[in-house]
Amino acid sequence: MKNEEWGRAGMGLVFDRWPKDAEGHAEESAFLCTCGSTDLSDTLTVNLLEAYGIPCLRDYPGNGAFGRVIMGASGTGVDIYVPKSMLEEARMLIKGEENDEEL
Question: What pTM was computed for the model?
Answer without folding.
Answer: 0.71
